[in-house]
């Protein structure tokens, strides 16, 4: 899909479809709509007067062969009430909804017309990211593909500034990197074992110009990553630790080094604490955190932040094989801390324990981890917000600013000292599940913090937001690519 800026008058635009949006109760159509309405001899105003064109959020009106326009179709998408409109999120949804409505109708060339007040870089960024994300389909393993594609999108009437064209380029990189992550998340576990994930990471790194190192099971044993080894030993598939590095051309001495750590359990059966069969197939997406971090690295390679970034991804299956670790086992993490494994299904925190510690060994001064860590986060936040934990608080707050700026919903979650009490073990240093009632997402976070120590750190629990079971008008069902935009934005600003 090629996306470019254009400045032709709306009435003479040649396209399979013109797309624009209208606010709820917008009686006097202005901007693009006013121009189109005049070309169409007031047809749009009469549709608005008759109540067919309401402007209600994401309601669509599709007109064929609109009189007075050269385009074959006119699609008007509702933008909702103007006072509740946020360009960063709503333009994304509007553009995505338009693409997903027009693509199956055979539209090849679409033109998206700027609204009255939203002609700048932020609008273009949201529209371009929304279009690319909406274009993603999960049909890789279908014999009959839909074979419909929108080839060209013209963005018409936006500011002709350098900022706008830079925003377009940056949004393309971010949108495509999100889809790269989503493709990985979608892969079934027989098509994406830890070794295959490592190979995919290598191919990406090579293409993007990033340095990469894959630690195999021997190296992992040498480094004494006992918590990762404990999880991996139940599977016949060996684990891998994927290390990807971005180095700026002129690194400043003493600059922060950002560590991005992502959980990559390519399939989580629960291990000996086995999960029920219902929905277990979804545990192929338990590598969503790792995929997100690889996607973020792909984007950063192109966007070139001024600080070094090191990405560490522990990759393993969690299987109940004959050598599997058992509830009650004690493992020794790379840091030397001993862990009583109460529940083998709380494996994400175990592999992250060694990965965050290793990231610090590699010189990371600031950390972000992303993980499909707990079912408890769904209880707390449904599939609406990512649970964002972290310390110190101002570091977390800075990260939440990036989430806000990129239109990703995240909510700060508590990790007070009381949660620490809940992961004390009676026979080892810590246990891998909380002993108290509730607070499962917070005890999970505290467990990771044991290995983070005082390093500034953000932990994103994406268990309930990394995947949607039902499609949205602007997004296919399946992997969402959540958190990548915030992470990239944060890395560029740190
Ligand atoms: N991978 C799961 C968490 C998960 C649940 C991800 C639902 C996506 C959707 C994780 O490894 C897990 O099983 N966590 C347990 C922890 C518990 C045993 C303390 C959970 O949340 O039930
Ligand atoms: Zn688990
Ligand atoms: Zn898991």
Helical content, roughly? 25-40%
Distance between the termini: 32 Å
**Weakly predicted, low-confidence segments:** none
Q: What does the main sheet amount to?
A: 9 strands, mixed
Counted beta strands? 20
> Radius of gyration, rounded?
24 Å
Coarse structural class: alpha/beta
Question: In percent terms, what proportion of residues is strand?
Answer: 15-25%
| Average pLDDT rating | 96
Q: How would you characterize this protein structure?
A:
With 494 residues, the chain is an alpha/beta fold. The chain contains 15 helices and 20 strands. It has helices spanning 31-39, 43-50, 87-102, 121-134, 162-186, 194-208, 217-222, 226-232, 288-303, 348-361, 376-381, 393-405, 417-421, 440-452, 484-493; strands spanning 2-6, 17-22, 60-64, 73-78, 109-113, 152-156, 211-215, 240-246, 258-262, 264-268, 309-318, 330-332, 338-340, 366-371, 386-391, 410-412, 430-431, 457-461, 467-468, 478-479. The strands form four sheets. Strands 7, 8, 9, 10, 11, 14, 15, 16 and 18 form a nine-stranded mixed β-sheet that branches. It has a six-stranded mixed β-sheet with strand order 1-6-5-2-4-3, with helices on one face. Strand 10 (264-268), helix 9 (288-303) and strand 11 form a beta-alpha-beta unit. It is elongated. One zinc ion (ZN) binds next to strand 10.
């Amino acid at each position: 899909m090629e996306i470019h800026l254009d400045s032709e008058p709306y009435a003479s635009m040649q396209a399979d479809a013109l797309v624009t949006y209208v606010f709820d109760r917008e009686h006097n159509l202005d901007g693009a709509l006013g121009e189109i309405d005049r070309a169409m001899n007031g047809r749009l105003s009469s549709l608005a007067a008759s109540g067919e064109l309401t402007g209600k959020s994401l309601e669509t009106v599709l007109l064929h062969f609109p009189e007075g326009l050269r385009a074959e179709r006119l699609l008007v998408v509702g933008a909702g009430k103007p006072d509740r409109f946020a360009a960063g999120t709503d333009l994304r949804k509007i553009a995505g909804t338009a693409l997903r409505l027009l693509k199956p109708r055979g539209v090849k060339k679409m033109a998206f017309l700027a609204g009255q007040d939203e002609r700048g870089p932020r609008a273009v960024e949201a529209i371009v990211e929304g279009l690319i994300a909406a274009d993603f389909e999960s049909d890789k393993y279908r014999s009959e593909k839909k074979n419909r594609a929108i080839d060209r999108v013209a963005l018409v009437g936006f500011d002709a500034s350098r900022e706008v064209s830079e925003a377009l380029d940056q949004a393309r990189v971010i949108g495509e990197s999100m889809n790269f992550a989503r493709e990985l998340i979608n892969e079934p576990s027989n098509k994406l074992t830890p070794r295959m994930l490592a190979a995919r990471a290598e191919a990406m790194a090579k293409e993007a110009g990033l340095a990469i190192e894959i630690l195999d099971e021997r190296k992992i044993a040498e480094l004494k990553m006992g918590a990762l080894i404990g999880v991996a030993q139940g599977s016949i598939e060996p684990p891998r630790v994927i290390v990807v590095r971005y180095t700026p051309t002129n690194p400043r001495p003493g600059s922060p080094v950002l560590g991005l750590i992502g959980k990559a359990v390519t399939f989580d059966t629960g291990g000996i604490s086995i999960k029920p069969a219902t929905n277990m197939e979804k545990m192929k997406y338990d590598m969503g955190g790792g995929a997100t971090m690889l996607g973020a690295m792909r984007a950063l390679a192109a966007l070139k932040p001024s600080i070094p970034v090191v990405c560490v991804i522990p990759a393993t299956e969690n299987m109940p094989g004959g050598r599997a670790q058992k509830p009650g086992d004690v493992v020794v993490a790379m840091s030397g801390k001993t862990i009583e494994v109460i529940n083998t299904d709380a494996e994400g925190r175990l592999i992250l324990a060694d990965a965050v510690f290793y990231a610090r060994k590699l010189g990371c001064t600031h950390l972000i981890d992303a993980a499909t860590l707990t079912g408890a986060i769904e209880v707390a936040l449904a599939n609406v917000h990512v649970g964002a934990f972290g310390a110190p608080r101002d570091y977390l707050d800075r990260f939440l600013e990036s989430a806000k700026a990129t239109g990703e919903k995240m909510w700060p979650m508590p990790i007070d000292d009381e949660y620490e009490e809940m992961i004390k073990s009676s026979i080892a240093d810590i246990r891998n599940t909380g002993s108290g009632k509730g607070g499962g997402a917070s005890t999970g976070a505290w467990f990771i913090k044991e290995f983070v120590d005082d390093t500034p750190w953000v932990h994103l629990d994406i268990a309930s937001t990394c995947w949607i079971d039902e499609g949205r008008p602007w997004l296919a069902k399946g992997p969402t690519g959540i958190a990548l935009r915030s992470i990239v934005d944060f890395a560029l600003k740190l």
